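Objective 1b. Sequence-to-structure analysis of Glycosyl transferase family 1 domain-containing protein.
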Amino acid sequence: MKVLYIGDFIKGNGPSTVDINVRDSIEKSNHSNQVEFLQSTTKISFSVMRKIHNIDVVHVSGVSFLGMMLMLFSRLCGKKASMTMHGSLIMESQFRKIAPHRRFFELIQQRCANKIMPVSNLLAEKAKINNKAIVIPNGVNFIAKSSILKQENLITLIGGGRKEKRHLEVCEVIKKINDKHELNIKVNLFGEHGIDSSKINSFSFIKDFGFSDKEIVFESLSKSKIFIQYSEFESFSLAVADAINYQCYVITSNLVGINEFITLSNSYIVVDNKKELEEAIILQYNASKRKDIDNKLFTWEQVSDKYVKCWEAL
């Protein structure tokens, strides 16, 4: 079996993190000579297209022009094709502007794919791809558990001022809690500026770091007692996995894909509205000892093995 894997090994965002970890895991395994990795921004050329003749499966991670073209060409040549679905551009277009051509690329890739690997059952259901779906969640680089000194009044949020992250609503709830209970909860915010950024930054307890190196984000998680992912929709959420790694209490909305791999408890609470969010924050703020969060998350090595088995089955 020979596989050509088209992904993004440069950007360092969520999908790129997946590609980098899958690549690194496969290159360390006994399947290293079976998979060739190609950067998704590579220009199409005759030499690139010729690669199709030497492989059995084209796998595209995410959406790209190169990926779409290679999937089309592979199917014309009688080869198999698959894709990792990190999210849905059609769904994202409800929250922010998505270029029409990118939505077209996604549609063609989905049509060409023999199998689609969404990162959660939630995504498969919302994107209506269950007939082609084999769910492969993102992996986690588990770190050794150690005693971490937490700042009892610190919360970390990741996702910046993007409206769909609903961080403005989180801040409104925290202000209410601070005022009502005379607390001094502080919030570290990471991520790109968006529609809600100016309003979010009007709260005195917010420290907005913007885009930051992962080391700075991890440092904040290691200090924070609570991490909140109150998004309108998250296909998975590597940020939640990181928060678990750094022994945070976690609160998420009910539309976060990683939830299906986690056992709910007072340490990991799923909420549906601002009232439940307020109650969850107060409960976790007052908790004296965090219990470990039971989960069924995979290492990147296990995730890579799942991809290889899917390709072999094709």
